[in-house]
Records
---
Amino acid sequence: MTGEPWTRLLGSATPVIGAPMAGGASTPALVRAVTAAGGFGFLPAGYRSAEAVAADLAGLEATGTPFGVNLFVPGPPGIDETTFRAYARRIAAEGEPYGLDLAGAPLTHDDDHWSDKIDLLVRHPVPVVSFTFGLPDAAALAALRRAGTRTLVTVTSVAEALAARDLGVDGLIAQGTEAGGHSGVHDPHQPASPASTRPLVRDVVAAAGLPVLAAGGVAGPGDVRDLIAAGATGVVVGTLLLRTDESGANRTHRDALADPARTTTVITRAFTGRPARGLRNTFIDRHEPAAPLGYPELHHLTRDMRAAAAAAGHPDRVHLWAGTGYRHARTGSAAAVVEGLTAAL
């Protein structure tokens, strides 16, 4: 495959990549729309069964849409019973309006159907698989590569980038601190100093010698141009797609992104036990100081509360994931977002 570096890596006409926003925001319709506009869309497999992912794969493949799939790398249990129970009791009142007993919720750890999804993607290969939250095991990586799939790992530091390179991946996603949603840091207990996207891209490109996609803080075409100039092969866009016609983001989330009273984003672990950037709200203000690390256990603890609050239009109990460029998220088609971001290239 020849041409621009993003064409050689992803087969796309432009360097814009639709982020795999798990939890419902990145729908198959959004993946199709980004790709149809010349970008490259990623389907999120996080929080979903292998059967549900398989249905989306079949639907996209039937349309002839090239796309990638993102997987969450499972980690060990993240929290002990005593710490979990103390936090569950602390936030118990937040669930009461929805009839939820958060104080008595079970401590739940899972691997997000890891083996089933690897098996699925080996049987039904896609062009690219990306990994978030750590490094995949060598056997899974080898099986995907034998199937003809290119592999990418999200990194937040040069050290993580070098570890991924040494494992034998085909490329990296350098996620800066401005990115919305979960940080892809490999060990939240020992994070590197926060790094802005542009210098992180520059340093990772220089150190690792692999294609690097840039993720975090994209607000307009100038950011795409600057990140490409810093050495990025492509630029991942998430928050700017959240209010588009094809997005699956719920109405409460969409409205909050446009609410002038929402003036800042913060990094929080209060909702899921893993650092993530979102719009500041009162749940974060009340509970962030006491929130422990503990993913996915805290994710399971607050999941039903967040879903009920979103359905009820209560943004202060919802994880309003957003990057620092959220003010530039507009309604309309995803194609218009992709075309606008690439107009100056």
---
Amino acid sequence: MTPAVATARLEARISPELQQLLKRAAQIEGRTLTDFVVAAVQEAAQKTIEQAEVIRLSLEDQQRFAEALLAPPPPSAALQRAIARHDKLLRSEE
């Protein structure tokens, strides 16, 4: 006996034209309508998340980024002041 898999239900109201379009596409792929819709929605969700979370750089920007990591510029005056304030805050908490 296989263990039960938890599922959730999703309902959506669509036009009859869209339903026919989805049914046709599902038939072409040899899938049920539900399987087709779930796969399409999952793919769209993964693509949306990837676009939001993955930073894509041109080759030139990749080179600049690598150079900045390997040979960072000296800290600016503003950064030095921020570090000093941070250190002061940490000392006052002790």
